[in-house]
Every structure is written in C-alpha cells, then in structure tokens.
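FAQ: What does a multi-protein file look like?

Like this. Sequence, then tokens, then the next protein.
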Amino acid sequence: MPTNYTDDQSAYVEMHGGLAPTFDDTVRLGAGGTLYWEETWYPVAGIGDVVFADAAGALNVQKTDAGVQVGFYPVGYIHGNLTLTVAGAAVSTQPINLRPAQPFQQTIALPPDLPDRGMVTVQILDNEGRPVFQFQQEMALR
C-alpha cells in the first residue's frame, strides 16, 4: 500500500529513470562498454496533477466548477505573458514573473457561452514574444 511508505500516510510517488523501461527490467553494460542518457528532474509541488511537462516546466490544467484551473511549475525564470485560450477565444492574458520557487497557480473564470467541449490552450510567451511553452488539449467545458 503506498501510504505505508510515508510517515503521515499521505500519497507516495516514486519516479523511475534510466535506460531500463521499468523497475523490473535491467540493462547490462558489457566490459569496456559505455552508456549515455539524459534526464531532467524538477519539482512539481503546488500545481496539482501534471498533465504535460517539457524542458520549460510542468503543467496542470483542469476544468472546475469555477473555471479552468491552471498550474505551471517552471524550471527557470520566465518573464512574459500567459494566455489561456478556450474554444478559439483568448479568455485570459496576464503578465507573469515565474521562478521555480514561485509557480503559477490560478483558477480562471470562463465566459458562459461556451460549447460543451472545446480546445483549451495554455501558451507562455517571453517578454520579446517568443514562445516558451505551449499545451493544447480538447476537454469538457461544461
């Protein structure tokens, strides 16, 4: 049971990395052989679930009764604008100054005239207008 691994019986997650696809698999290194791989690990605390991650950060985006909850945990400093587009309409654009110790977490209200389902896009541009992060997914809006 996962709660057996924590002092306060909270949830437990163990990340897996390396060349083997699972904990049970092994990768053998022969005599004189070399192996190489890259991994990027970073914290995601404070944004809820993670639905997407890339080299810029990790994203949570969920429909709630109050609107769309957006959580973004950056891996570095990001100064620019975050735009939430829903069903083809930009519903929020706001300036952001993020750093790993200060992720973005906000519930953004939606207009009442949305379809039942639609494309939701989260885009982050830096102060020069260059794309830093983008995620797009169709989701239930009602």
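And here is the next protein:
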Amino acid sequence: MKPLVLVYTGDGKGKTTAALGCVFRALGSGGRCAVIQFIKCDAQSTGECRMAHQIGLLWECYGKGFLWNQESLEPTREEALKGFARARELAASGQYDLMVLDEVTYALSLGLIDEREFLSWISEIHEMNDGPCLIITGRGASMALQTAADTVTEMKEIKHHFKSGDIKARKFIEF
C-alpha cells in the first residue's frame, strides 16, 4: 500500500497533538510507530514523551531547543541532520508503519536540513511498497512541501488563552 505523507502546519495550536492522536490510533490497531522530534527537545519534560517511554513508543529528540540567536544555529543544524539521518534509517528499516517528524518544518525553513534533499526523500517514501506513512508537523510548511504531501491541514488560531496575559501554560493542556 502506498505510504501517505500528511502535513500539519499553521499558527494554531494542535499540530503535535493531532499527530499523536494518529499515533495512538495506529498503536491501538497494532501499528508500529516512531516519533522523531526536531528543535524543541527535552526528552523527559513533556507528558507525551514520558508516556511514550512507558508504553514502548520510540521517541527520539534531535534538537537544542528553539533558536534564540545565530550562535545556537550550528549545534542545532548538527542535531537536525542527525535526526533526518535517523528518520531515513527508520523508514528504510521496514519496521514502522507510521512516523511523526515533529517540528521538522522549522529545520527546513531555517535551512538546517536541505529542503530539496528532504523532498527527494518524500518521493522515495512514496515509491516504497510498504513504507511508513509520515506525519510532518510545524509552522510555515513551504509550498513545495505542501505540494509533495498527500494531505495538508492548516491549524488556525481563532482564540487562545495565552493572549489574555493572565493564563500561563497549564499542566495537562500544554505539557
């Protein structure tokens, strides 16, 4: 069966949450899943990551956190390239039905990962008979990435409690 490539992008909340909903649906149906997280990485700080380890879901982090200045660019590039190499390795292994590449759009838009090479890899995924479906998340997915995908969903913020200024990130909702 042809693998699908889904992109969850946009400025609204819920891209990673939607991807993880698909992961849990797949796991519940006997699927084999992996999550490769780019940029925002703190391997044990989120409830999602802790739960992944409890249930045996492969969850790997390749990043140094969000970039605040040019000095953090090179170490972050190295991590992003390691993450992309690992994603390619896992996809080629034939051991996974679904892979999430969380926040990889940031690595692409910042030039940490060459977009042409990434799009070429997506073409290779599409050619595989039993390759994994990919879910790609993050803001600012390029038009080329959207064109290469089978499904693109844009998360749009209508209203968010952070904007009121007096509500902070809340356990069980944001982390």
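Q: Is there any per-entry metadata?
A: Some entries carry free-text notes. For the entry above: The first helix runs from residue 15 to 28.
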